[in-house]
Hints:
It contains eight helices and 18 strands. The chain has helices spanning 12-23, 88-107, 117-124, 126-135, 149-157, 234-238, 256-269, 301-317, and strands spanning 2-6, 28-31, 40-45, 54-59, 63-65, 69-74, 112-114, 143-146, 164-167, 172-174, 181-183, 187-189, 203-207, 213-220, 223-230, 248-251, 273-280, 286-292. A five-stranded antiparallel β-sheet has the order 16-15-14-17-18. The chain has a four-stranded parallel β-sheet with strand order 2-1-6-7, with helices on one face. The termini are close together.
Amino acid sequence: MTVLVLTRPTDATADLVIAELNERSIPVRRLDPGVFPEALNMTARIGPDLTSWQGALRGRHQDVSFSDIRSVYYRRPGAFRFHPDMTEQDTRWAQAEAQAGLGGLLYSLPCLWVNHPNRNALATFPPVALAAAARGGLSVPRTLITNDPVEAREFVSALPGQVAAYKALGTTHPDDHDDRPQALWTTQVRPGEIDESVRRTAHQFQEWVDKDYEVRLTVVAHNLFAAEIHAGSDASRIDFRTDYGSLTFKPCGVPEHIAGGVHMLTYTFGLQYVALDFLVNPQGRWYLVDVNPNGQWGFIPDLRAPITRALADLLESAHP
């Protein structure tokens, strides 16, 4: 039985899990759906005598049969790439057909997913995730989502220090030059900096929490792995992703009420894996600020190996 890993050709996070599975002599097939259809063939059949799709994916270097897949590790697959001679209209049609065809076949696999793309998609929406967290008993900062600059200015003006964290509702923005996705960092915003351009789309403003440190809490099935993140620069204190070199990490425990809320959150979305970011204020209160069902963990040295092993355990033990 094979573990199927769906990700781009370059993915250091997936590499950790693949290496662990290889060491255990567990069959692994790494595949980027983005090479379909130019470098990947797929064929599948179903009928009166079949209860699931039967067939295979055939690439340039390795094949995998649908019936041999015990579990799927869904990381960060690339977008479909089509023949350059196709018109823009034909490419749009082919994109929709490829997603419905290949995507549909993969999503129908009756096996363990870490995580199923549909589960990821729902949990990735901040309004959905924050509401679910609050219902589960986790604290979230006061948050406003709006396209009304007047409402935004009034909200920020009422916050302590009249300052908010501006956070993108998505994670990336196309680059001005080549359309490649670019990370969008958290920034501080004050009432006078909010102008009429807010009307052009939805924006998220969040109470600025005076944090003592942050916690990255990674969940694998029922296992919790947590580490304090201490910022070593002004930039990393606003968004730790901007200056990894300044950070220090310390594994930590998880308060019982936080653990209960986290398990409720993963149950709500049906997630086998999720990375959660908390801000911890000087009084020790944990505020959930980010839910990432496909987040990385390799940047925390002391937790890299335990999380890798836990993921490999989960993928290995699955039975289709």
